[in-house]
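INTERNAL TRANSFER SHEET
From: sequence group
To: structure group
Subject: (2Fe-2S)-binding protein

Please process the attached sequence and return the structure record in the designated field. Keep the field labels unchanged so the import script can parse them.
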Amino acid sequence: MTPDPREALRDVCAPLRFSPLPELLTFGELHARPAGTVQWLPVGAMAAEGWVPVLFDKLRTEHGPGHRLPAATNFLRVTLREPIFMVSASLYLTGRAPLLDADTLYLPWDTASARFATPVSVDTRLAVLPDDPAAHHPDTVVVRDLDEQIGLTAEALFATFEPLIDALHEHSRAGKRTLWGWVLDTLHFYMLNPARYLARDAEAAWDLAGRLADAVVEAGAVTRKRPRLFPFAPGHPQGTWAVRGTCCFDYKGDPEHGYCTTCPLKCDTERAESLSEWLRDPALAP
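Return from structure group:
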C-alpha cells in the first residue's frame, strides 16, 4: 500500500521547534466535526460572499491592533500562516508540494471568541516527481520535473490567496504589494527556519524559496522588494537569518515593541546583536 504523503509531512515536521501546519482532513472528517460555535469558511466563498470585511473588522475591534496596516498583515498571519508553512516546509523537507485550493482550504471562525482557529486543508493533493514513492497515491499529481512542480505549486497558491488578498486590500486599503510582500517573505522564512533548526545549508533553502517566490510573482503576485539573507555568525550552523523585504508594520500597532528583528527598517548592527543573543540563549529566539 502506498504510504499517505500527508502523514509523511506530519512526521517530518514533528521534530521542528516551529511547525504551524494546518489540520489535514478528508471531507468526511471535516463534515463529522460538530459545528458548535465554529463557522467553516472556504477561502473562495469567504471572499466571494463578503466575509472578509466583516471578520477583519470584528477581529480588529475585539483584539486589535487598531492601526489598519498591522491589522491587515495580522489578518494574513492568522489565516494564511499555516498554509504557507505547509507549502514551504513540505517542498523543502519532503520534495512534495501541496497544491492549495480556494474551495478546500477552510478558515474556521469561532464566533464565541471572535478568532480564527487553525486552518484546515481538505483532501490535500501534492505534486510529486516521477521517482517519488508516493507517485501512485490517489492524492498525488505526478509532474515531469522540479520546474513544473514549482510552477503548479505557485499557480495554486496564487489562485487560492488572491481572492482573499483582493478583498482585504479593498477593505483595509493596505497595498497589494504590502500584502503579497508579507506572503512572499513568509514563504522564504518557512524554508529557512527548518534549514537553520536542522543545521542544513541555509543558502540552498533560500535558493529554493526564491525559485518558488519567482513563480508566485510570475503567476500574478506583486511586491516592491524581496527579502534577503542575513549572515550574522559566519561558520555557525545557525548563524544565518534573514531580513524581510516588506515591513509588517507591527511597530505601528505596538510602538513600545519597536521594530521586529527581521524588519527592513531596523539597523543591521542592532539586528546582528539581537540575533547573536539568540545563539547565546536559544530561549530568546522566536
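Handover comment: The mean pLDDT is 95. The radius of gyration is 19 Å.
Transfer complete.
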